[in-house]
Amino acid sequence: MSRMWMKEHRERQKAFERRRYPTNLIDEEWERIHPILPQPAWRGRKPKMNLREILNAIRYLARVSCGWRMLPYEFGPWQTVYCGSDASCGVCCSRPCAMSI
Predict the structure, then answer these.
(1) Rg of the chain over CA atoms, in angstroms?
(2) What is the pLDDT of residue 99?
(3) In whole angstroms, what is the distance from residue 5 CA to residue 80 CA?
(4) What domain of life does the native source organism fall in (predicted)?
(5) Using one digit for the tens of pLDDT, what is the confidence trace for 58-87?
(6) pTM exceeding the 0.70 threshold for the entire prediction
(7) Structure confidence by residue, pLDDT tens digits, 41-63
(8) Separation of alpha carbons 79 and 27, rounded Å
(9) Is the pLDDT of residue 101 over 60?
């Protein structure tokens, strides 16, 4: 049997396909920032995106000075990142955001 379609291979392929950008947070930066970020609410729907990925996307946008809609697909939908970065979550759209508490 070919090893190409085994679960382990798919996990390695998924990690390989996740493109790394120079603007991504390194582990040491994430460990310092993570404690001061708002924690997700214990009630309600779980966030679809990881806060680290939202921060990576915001750092990418700040570095390359591109528009929200030009965000690479590896960071997820631009609407999710845009709403997750808005401090007034709930004003920008009616759906719950990734960073809302």
Answers:
(1) 16
(2) 45
(3) 31
(4) Bacteria
(5) 899 889 888 888 888 788 788 888 876 554
(6) no
(7) 888 888 777 888 888 888 998 89
(8) 26
(9) no
Region for residue 65 given its phi and psi (left: phi exceeds 0; alpha: psi -120 to 50; beta: otherwise): left
Neighbours of 80 (CB within 10 A): 20
Task: Round to whole Å and give the CA distance between 6 and 90.
Answer: 42
Q: How far is CA 33 from CA 13, 51, 52, 73, in A?
A: 29, 11, 9, 24
Place of tokens 């291979």: 9
Residue with tokens 């404690």: 35
- How crowded is residue 4: how many other Cβ atoms within 10 Å of its Cβ? 8
- Structure tokens of 98? 């990734």
81-99 core/surface letters (b: 16 or more CB in 10 A; e: else): bbbbbeeebeeeeeeebbb
Length of the chain: 101
Domain ranges of the chain: 22-101
- Please give the Cα distance from 72 to 19 (Å, whole number): 10
Two structure tokens written together for 9: 């291979």
